[in-house]
Amino acid sequence: FRAPLLPLVGADTLVPVLDGRRMRQANFDAAASAPALREVADRVTEALPWYASVHRGAGYLSQVSTALYESARERIGAYVEARPDDIVVITRNTTDATNLLATVTPGPTLALDLEHHAALLPWRLGAGSTVLTPAPTVAGTLDLLDAELARTPYALLVVTGASNVTGEALPVDRVVELAHRHGARVLVDGAQLLAHRRLSLAGSGVDYVALSGHKLYAPFGAGALVGRRDWLDEGRPHLAGGGAVTAVGTDSVSWASAPARHEGGTPNLLGAVALATACDVLAGAEHALDEHERALRGRLLAGLRTIHGLEVVRLWPEAGEPVGVVTFTVPEDPTLVASVLAAEHAVALRAGRFCAHPLFERLGLPAGALRVAVGAGTSSDDVDRLVGALRQVLSEGPRGRYREDGDRALL
Ligand code: PMP
Questions:
Q1: Which of 4, 151, 172, 305 is 20 to 30 A away from residue 128, measured at CA?
Q2: Which residues form the Aminotransferase class V domain (predicted)?
């Protein structure tokens, strides 16, 4: 498969059934799960007639399916510019990838409290983890990490590639430099980042990256863990079963080396094809997408500034330009505001704490906030519609209105 280079902006790049305009819904929830690209749907449809067992059958279709699966693995690795010796394990999603890495991490892990639960919790099950509250500046946070890494011999430092709450991140090159200086490896949680911008393992020195297809405009089903071979070759198999072994006796097992070691069971061919196609398209559209998102994010922020009482959540105001994710607080219950926006304005966004409970606890926002994600399918009309709808809902005051209307209450 070779995906053509698409401009990747506008709803026409998405599959029609999920096209925002046909649904008459302005979708700002791609940070949770993005609509599928047309190119992804086309390549999956093309692969279906060839679909057969991967790594198992001798038949021609099985051979083609195996080749498609291994080609997908290669292209996923190429998207993150894996080093020649790196391993690409195809997983279900980022959560699956971080859980896999946690089982093979040979020591304690360090993270900041802004991480998604998928990047925090797996290490609580294993060799232990420490969670730090970052300083209010990037430089202060790097100093904090430096001091903690000097104090304790961590095996791994987990950092977000882009926060799913604010779109922000620490400068990855500096994080890698200081972690490696103290003998720790670095995992970048790429779930959000890679839908917006690329990451080069070879160029940055990042040791591992975890990612999810359904954030990258492929449907749910496949993700990946990409990175250094040794822990993956030596660690406990993630999914024990067929394909993960070279030989099994009644009381003996020879485990395969990675990636097969961690991919027990029949591989998800169509998920891998979808994810790899999304990677191909995103790789060819990086600059167009980045420009599109910067413009929309700027338009959104300008619009939000015109509405009284909204506050955009930023962790490090001096940090570089965040990716296309904006979270803000509202002077009403955010869940109710999101429900009214959906029901009355067909504007879809997400309310809550976005699987980042420790961060919201620190921010003192127990009810959470509203999150808007802009991406490939978002237009400037969508942004204007959101801003207009938000202004209207907040000026009318959803609570009072729905209380008066009695059983029209939405929640
Ligand atoms: N990390 C981040 C930053 C995320 O935004 C998400 C998804 N919300 C995850 C990890 C987990 O991804 P998944 O649900 O696909 O495993």
A1: 172
A2: 28-386
